[in-house]
Amino acid sequence: MNTHYRMPAEWEPQESIWMAWPHDRSTWPKSFDRVLETLAKLVATLSSGQEVHVAVASDTDATTCRRRAAEAGANSDNVYCHVLAFDDVWLRDTGPVFVERHDEGGVSRAAIGFTFNGWGGKFPHRHDEVLKHSIADIMKSPLVSPGIVLEGGTLETNGRGTLLTCQPSVIDFQRNPHLTRGDAEAIFAKYLGCTKVVWLERGLDGDDTDGHIDNLARFVAEDTIVAATQEDRHDVNFDVLKENLSQLRALRDEHGKPYRIVTLPMPKPVMEGWDRLPASYLNFLITNDRVIVPTFDQPSDTIAQERLAAVFPSREVIGIRANDLVQEAGAIHCLTQNVVKL
């Protein structure tokens, strides 16, 4: 049977969004309660327009999640809690990637289950590695395993066969010691339907994923890319983002035309002690009716939201404070995984 897959763009219709409710206070030892408040607000924001599935570690956490989300204004009819085993909350990386499956029987949904090894063995992942099986079963989507280590945060597509990714988090000895670019591109073509792959060379300073694309550059339309830029020449990210922007501006689409490039500023450095955190406005989430943007209590928050509103005129742009989230090196997009609607 001739079967092929297509990874939709994030702005295409979604059935639901998956996320997880934190259960380990040691993950955010200084701000756990504030993180729960932030996630409750996120659940409430998402549930106004579509279903939200939340992985929880216990029935007690399910009760807490529902209560706090309701207090934040959630549409409780759209919130579903599932007691599952998981280590951490970053479902963009640990959950399956939902795609369209095209075969002789028509179009159905499948879940691509890349292997997860704790971002190259940096963090515990015994439960996170098998979480994709549970989510795929709940969504009644067959799980397909490409056989390489990869996280969803390094996959960005326009839904028309072009993929943006960042090399250090894919071609990495701690993840895939023998994988070449050619090998990866063959897998992207087979399991995601992406036949053109754009490799950015470096990620943000402080990104312990080794560089995920969802902090660097995102498609917002088939012909439009938003890219992070740094104006401070003395900032450690200046050269990285300048190189990325130059590469993106030189890109041509399938018709030989340049992409429209929209820039988003970087927030001023967000620190945890002496450590730089990977705070980026690019870690936004696109839903059916909204764009949810991480904010950092800075004047540049408004600039980022205004520029995204200009490229998403039919969606409401909402900022959610992410200062506490980014203490663990992630934000809104990292927390969530969208499920394509057929």
Automatic annotation (TrEMBL):
- Recorded GO terms, molecular function? agmatine deiminase activity; protein-arginine deiminase activity
Q: Mind listing the UniProt keywords for this protein, alphabetically? A: Hydrolase
What organism does the UniProt record list as the source?
Kolteria novifilia
Q: A GO BP term, please?
A: putrescine biosynthetic process
Uppermost EC category: hydrolase
Pfam families for this protein: PAD_porph (PF04371)
For whether the record's keyword set contains Hydrolase, the answer is yes
**The keyword Kinase belongs to this UniProt entry's keyword annotation:** no
Q: Which InterPro entries match?
A: Peptidyl-Arg-deiminase_porph
This one is known as Agmatine deiminase
Please name the Gene3D superfamilies in this protein's record: L-arginine/glycine Amidinotransferase, Chain A
Q: What is its EC number?
A: 3.5.3.12
